């Protein structure tokens, strides 16, 4: 038998308190976006390297 606690079927876990952690991380991300004038869901600034760049890297 495993020593790892099993989460209840409804997704709540008193051991890890995942709902609270996720909520706090979401709040921190929203605060960062507000301070840095970023809009939620904003696109841009991230794209894959070109084939030429990948060739140089590898």
TrEMBL record:
GO terms for molecular function: transferase activity. Residues 36-58 are annotated as: Disordered. Residues 36-49 have a biased composition (Basic and acidic residues). It comes from the Bacteria. Keywords: Transferase. This is Serine acetyltransferase. It comes from Pseudomonas avellanae.
């Amino acid at each position: 038998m495993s020593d790892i606690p099993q989460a209840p079927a409804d997704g709540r876990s008193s051991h890890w308190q995942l709902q609270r952690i996720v909520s706090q991380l979401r709040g921190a991300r929203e605060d960062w976006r507000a301070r840095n004038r970023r809009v939620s869901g904003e696109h841009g600034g991230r794209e894959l390297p070109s084939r030429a760049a990948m060739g140089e890297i590898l």
